[in-house]
Design a protein that fits this description.
Strand order of the largest sheet: 2-3-1-4-5
Order of helices and strands: HEHEHHEHEHHEHH
Function: Catalyzes the synthesis of activated sulfate.
CATH superfamily: P-loop containing nucleotide triphosphate hydrolases
Largest sheet: 5 strands, parallel
Structural class: alpha/beta
Number of strands: 5
Number of helices: 9
InterPro entries: APS, APS_kinase_dom, P-loop_NTPase
Family: Belongs to the APS kinase family.
Organism: Massilia solisilvae
Shape: globular
Distance between the termini: 46 Å
Radius of gyration: 17 Å
CATH architecture: 3-Layer(aba) Sandwich
Helix content: 40-55%
Keywords: ATP-binding, Kinase, Nucleotide-binding, Phosphoprotein, Transferase
Number of domains: 1
């Protein structure tokens, strides 16, 4: 649905102006994977490293967003679509501000992730698949969500009663069951340096 009777307003300060001031480019880092795959843990580790390098960052986490911006949504298919649509739009705003925004969401459906990708210019959307077997995710489940889902107490739970569609061509696939958080964070930062989002000069400053 598109709002009517609105006119987009351009800013006197462009994204490029903001990026020049902060000495790095903006980007959307989209971490996807099953509950318990380590998305939030990895996103926090990456953000801490980028912050230490002097990068402007912001982390959009699934639970945090659902407690505010998307607090009115449930977990039906329609609500899942709307949840990721809102997050994608929020990520686009951060990107325009020149920020490296980290989005840690199960985002189980390919079409929703593709819609979020389409909002960013080519090369600015980095899909990171946190790949972990379901059994490992269940063992890590300190909240007991998988147990409750298997007991029928939680409906539409991804990986149990609702599908997870693996990414076809993500920029990064990280085996979070076998690789440490530090190793995975190293891989993400290295990707950002390789693609020019984070200049090498920041690492050596």
């Amino acid at each position: 649905m598109v709002s009517t009777n609105v006119t987009r307003q351009d800013s006197a300060v462009s994204r490029l102006d903001r990026e020049r001031l902060q000495r790095h480019r903006g980007a959307v880092l989209w971490l996807t994977g099953l509950s318990g795959a380590g998305k939030s843990t990895l996103a926090n580790a990456v953000e801490a490293r980028l912050h230490a390098l002097g990068c402007r960052t912001f982390l959009l986490d699934g639970d945090n967003v659902r407690s505010g911006l998307c607090g009115d949504l449930g977990f039906s298919l329609a609500d899942r679509h709307e949840n990721i649509r809102r997050v994608g739009e929020a990520a686009r705003l951060f990107l325009d501000a020149g920020v490296i925004v980290l989005c840690a969401f199960i985002s189980p459906l390919k079409e929703d992730r593709q819609r979020a990708r389409a909002l960013a210019p080519d090369g600015d959307f980095v899909e990171i698949y946190c790949k972990s077997p379901l059994a490992v995710c269940e063992r890590r489940d300190v909240k007991g969500l998988y147990r409750r889902a298997r007991a029928g107490e939680i409906a539409d739970f991804t990986g149990i009663t609702s599908p997870y569609e693996e990414p076809d061509n993500p920029e990064l696939v990280l085996d979070t069951a076998r690789r440490s958080v530090d190793e995975c964070a190293d891989a993400v930062v290295a990707r950002l340096v390789a693609q020019g989002t984070v200049p090498v000069s920041l690492q050596t400053a």
